[in-house]
């Protein structure tokens, strides 16, 4: 004996999860060009383990990763990288 609608609950849950996944994937695809542009500005040096980030700024790999995530708007971060790039440039540029 089955109760009518027993399969409807899990099916509805799966449908909602599917739609949420589609929305998240679409948001990530829209962010790829901005994140990729930020990623291409850096060059990883295997010898020193740091990233040369244009314009001539040396940053840690974790910092570049944070910049890329922020540029793409991933994980709910603000997409404004201007102030962060200025801080990185001031911190790593010599006098």
UniProtKB/TrEMBL annotation:
The chain crosses the membrane at residues 6-22. The keyword Membrane applies. Keywords: Membrane, Transmembrane, Transmembrane helix. The keyword Transmembrane helix applies. This is Uncharacterized protein. It comes from Amycolatopsis orientalis (Nocardia orientalis).
């Amino acid at each position: 004996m089955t109760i009518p609608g027993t399969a409807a609950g899990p099916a509805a849950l799966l449908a909602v999860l599917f739609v949420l996944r589609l929305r998240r994937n679409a948001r990530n695809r829209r962010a790829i060009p901005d994140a990729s542009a930020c990623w291409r500005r850096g060059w990883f040096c295997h010898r020193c383990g740091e990233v040369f980030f244009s314009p001539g700024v040396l940053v840690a790999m974790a910092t570049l990763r944070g910049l890329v995530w922020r540029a793409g708007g991933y994980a709910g971060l603000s997409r404004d990288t201007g102030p962060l790039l200025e801080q990185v440039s001031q911190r790593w540029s010599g006098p």
